[in-house]
């Protein structure tokens, strides 16, 4: 039985169809990387799919790749004037959410919305389906030092996420967050250990370090009807990334691992404008919710005769804005 991601307006988009679209994108990205001498590897669950399934896992709704910082900057440059794809990253747009993948390569004239509200795309140029791009950094040989650095950056990440949730762009904090990762990478340039860049908030939960020789040089592995590069020692990589029971990931329930709320693989300019307008409306509603919360908090601190009036207005604003927000559909 096919898992259906979206079925409206006479459009039926199955998970298999979505995966085929991602595969087509990945083939294009691979060509760009080969042409520009950009070295990359499949990353995360995409490696698991390549090794155990020779393609996508049954529950996969994304592809992730990773590369060193130098190759990452080369990829940004290579995608500058591409007519089919757009790159979204902090380097290109200061609104970009810096606590996840370093970059998302989005396909134009498509649309995707994720279930996790903390992952909402802040960039306004495109909400298309995407390939995740992570940075592999030089890291300390000491696990304790690595943990401390990641923990400190994770604290900054939590503050950034909080601001982002109420539609405030903390540019200074983002700059510090990115600067920390560059300095950590640079300071450990002579280390023979590499790992996920400290800007990825989830990396605090998985302190995975690899010897450089376990990852590079990459090896080509069959993925569906083509081949993509994966870590040199893929078994050691999977053991560290997923743990000793990584084979259990082969029998995951699709419903538990689908991240997509809404998707469209072919949209018109008018539809794109509509999606952008809905996004702007949601942003305004979140700011109104913040204003309502501020009124409530201010009224409790003030303790004046009109405090109850302020609190009442704040509650009313909060309630109406929340009701409109939860009923706003794309």
How do the helices and strands line up, and which of them pair or pack?
Elements: E1 4-8, E2 11-14, H1 15-35, E3 41-42, H2 45-52, E4 64-68, H3 69-78, E5 85-89, E6 103-107, E7 111-114, E8 130-138, H4 143-165, H5 171-187, E9 193-196, E10 209-211, H6 212-215, E11 219-223, E12 226-230, H7 234-242, H8 254-257, E13 260-264, H9 269-302, H10 307-326
Parallel strand pairs: 4-8
Antiparallel strand pairs: 1-2, 3-4, 5-6, 6-8, 7-13, 8-9, 9-10, 11-12
Helix pairs in contact: 4-5, 9-10
Strand content: 15-25%
- Low-pLDDT residue intervals, each spanning 5 or more residues: none
Name of the CATH class of the largest domain: Alpha Beta
Domain module tally: 2
Major sheet: size, sense and barrel closure? 7 strands, mixed
Cα separation of the termini: 27 Å
Proportion of residues in helical segments = 40-55%
SS content category: alpha+beta
CATH architecture of the largest domain: 2-Layer Sandwich
Order of helices and strands: EEHEHEHEEEEHHEEHEEHHEHH
């Amino acid at each position: 039985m096919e898992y259906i991601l979206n079925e409206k307006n006479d459009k039926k988009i199955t998970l298999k169809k979505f995966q085929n679209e991602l595969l087509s994108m990945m083939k294009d990205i691979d060509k760009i990387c080969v042409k520009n001498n950009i070295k990359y590897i499949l990353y995360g669950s995409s490696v698991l799919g390549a090794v155990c399934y020779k393609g996508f896992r049954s529950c996969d709704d994304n592809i992730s790749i990773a590369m060193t910082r130098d190759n990452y900057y080369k990829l940004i440059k290579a995608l500058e004037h591409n007519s089919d794809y757009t790159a979204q990253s902090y380097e290109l747009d200061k609104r970009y959410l810096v606590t996840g993948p370093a970059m998302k390569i989005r396909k134009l004239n498509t649309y995707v919305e994720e279930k996790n509200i903390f992952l909402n795309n802040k960039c306004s140029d495109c909400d298309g389906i995407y390939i995740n791009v992570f940075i592999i950094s030089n890291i300390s040989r000491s696990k304790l030092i690595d943990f401390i650095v990641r923990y400190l950056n994770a604290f900054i990440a939590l503050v950034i996420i909080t601001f982002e949730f109420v539609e405030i762009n903390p540019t200074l904090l983002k700059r510090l967050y990115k600067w920390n990762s560059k300095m950590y990478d640079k300071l450990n340039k002579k280390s023979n250990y590499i790992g996920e860049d400290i800007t990825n908030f989830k990396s605090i939960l998985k302190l995975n370090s690899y010897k450089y020789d376990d990852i590079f040089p990459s090896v080509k592995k069959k993925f569906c009807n083509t081949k993509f590069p994966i870590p040199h020692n893929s078994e050691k990589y999977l053991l560290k990334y997923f743990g000793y029971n990584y084979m259990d990931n082969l029998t995951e329930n699709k419903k538990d691992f689908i991240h997509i709320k809404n998707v469209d693989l072919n949209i018109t300019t008018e539809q794109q404008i509509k999606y952008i307008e809905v996004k702007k409306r949601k942003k305004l509603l979140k700011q109104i919710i913040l204003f309502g919360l501020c009124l409530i908090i201010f009224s409790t601190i003030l303790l004046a005769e009109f405090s109850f009036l302020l609190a009442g207005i704040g509650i009313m604003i909060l309630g109406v804005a929340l009701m409109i927000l939860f009923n706003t559909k794309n």
